[in-house]
Amino acid sequence: MNSSDPRHRTLNIGLTGNIAAGKSTVTDLFRGWGATILDADQLVRESQVPGSPVLARIVAEFGAGILRSDGSLDRPALRALVLADPAARTALEAIVHPAVQRRREALLDEARRRGDFIVVNDIPLLFEALDPREFDAVILVDAPNAIRIDRLIRGRSIAPAEAERLLEAQMPSALKRPRSDYIIENDADRATLESRARAVWNTLQARADEFGTRAP
Predict the structure, then answer these.
(1) Which long-range contacts (CB under 8 A, 24 or more apart) does 180-183 make?
(2) Cα–Cα dist 191/185, whole Å
C-alpha cells in the first residue's frame, strides 16, 4: 500500500533516552524489526561536514580552535567547551537544531510519500528541543544513573568526573517519564531489554494496523 491510500497514515514515533540509557540499542532493534529510522545524531554529523553552512556558523561562534587540522569539527573539543559553559551550549543548539529539524522533517515527508508504516525518530534531546505532541507517541529508554555512569566509564572509557557532567547536562529522566507514552527500562541484561522493546514494538504494530494493512 502507498501513501495515496486514504486508509494509510505513517505512525510517527519519537524515541529518546538520556546518555548511556540504551537508546541506540533499542533503535537498532526497531530497525531490524522493520522501522524506518531517522537518527538525529547522524543528521547532526551530516550537517557539520566541512564546507557546510552549519560548520561555518559554529566556527564563527566558537573560533577555528574547534577544528581539526583537516578542517573537520573536533567534537571532543567542542563537547568540552559546551559542558563547561551553558551559554555556549545554548548558542550551539541555536545553530544546529533548526538545520537538523528541517532535514528530519524532509526525511519524514519522504517516508510518508513512500508509505512507510512506522517511522522512529531517534532524538536524544527530544524533550529539550521539540514538542513531544508532534509525535503519535513518545518512547523513553531509561536506566538508573549508577548504571549509566558505569556504562560510560567501562564501555566508553570516559573519566568518572566527565561522566557525571554528561549526566548533569541533560534534563533528568524523572521529568521525562510522565510525558512519555512508553517506557523501556534498561536495567538488566540484553535479552531482557530486547523482550521489553519487542513488547512495545508489538504495540506499535497494532497501532499501525489501525491506519491500514502494514507490510509483514
Answers:
(1) 180/16, 180/132, 180/138, 180/139, 180/140, 181/137, 181/138, 181/139, 182/137, 182/138, 182/139, 182/140, 183/139, 183/140, 183/141, 183/142
(2) 12
pLDDT band at 216; cut points 50, 70, 90: very low
Instruction: Decide if 12 contacts 108 (C-beta within 8 A).
Output: yes
State mean pLDDT over 4-21. Answer: 83
Got the DSSP string for 6-53?
A: TT---EEEEEE--TTSSHHHHHHHHHHTT-EEEEHHHHHHHHTSTT-H
CA distance 113 to 68: 39
Look-up: residue for cell 568526573?
161
Predicted confidence (pLDDT) per residue in 24-45, tens digit: 999 999 999 999 999 999 999 9
H-assigned helices in 63-85: 75-84
